[in-house]
Amino acid sequence: MRLILVWLVNACALLAVAYLLPSIQVASFGSALGAALVLGLVNTLLRPLLVLLTLPVTVLTLGLFLLVLNGLMFWLAGSLLDGFVVGGFWPAVFGAILYSLFSSALSSLLPTGEAR
């Protein structure tokens, strides 16, 4: 149940990012749900491999390259879906930053399920 709630929260966070940044467009809430799912899958499956491969650059830049990597993942998700459009690299980086901030803030409001 919590997984579905986090998915819905991530879709709402994506809609908020699209509202704030004009170069990121989400067609509908269904598109936001699909984009949140694709972002979750890309971050789960592809991101660990890319973090490992780019570890020397990440160490050299003191971790700032992870922002670039997050932006590339966001841009990739935008290029895979029709209802989710990201206007370029820098909007993807700023969108990824806002998306992670909104997503973590909204996810912290969800109940953890430990109080039983």
Automatic annotation (TrEMBL):
Please tell me whether the keyword Transmembrane is annotated for this protein: yes
Q: Name one Pfam family in it.
A: Phage_holin_4_2
Q: Which controlled-vocabulary keywords does the entry list?
A: Membrane, Transmembrane, Transmembrane helix
List, alphabetically, the InterPro entries matched.
Answer: Phage_holin_4_2
Where does the sequence pass through the membrane?
28-46, 53-77, 89-110
Protein name, per record: Phage holin family protein
Supply the source organism's classification. Answer: Bacteria, Pseudomonadati, Pseudomonadota, Betaproteobacteria, Candidatus Accumulibacter
